[in-house]
Amino acid sequence: FVLSVCCVGKFNINNTKDLYRDLVSVFDKLILPTHASCHVQYFMFYICSFKLGLAEAFLDHLWKKLQDPNNPSVIRQTAGSYIGSFLARAKFIPAITVKACLDLLVNWMHKYIDNQDTGANAYCDVALHGPFYSTCQAVFYTLIFRHKQLLDGNLRKGLSYLQSLNFERIVMCQLNPLKICIPSVVNLFAAITRKYQLVFCYTIIERNNRQFIPVVRSGTGGDLVQTCTNPLDSFFPFDPYILKRSKKIIDPLYQFWEELSAEDLENLKKPIKKGSSEDEDDDFLKGETPQNDGVVGSAPNPYELSTRSPVSSMGSPADCYVPF
Question: What is the pTM of this model?
Answer without folding.
Answer: 0.79
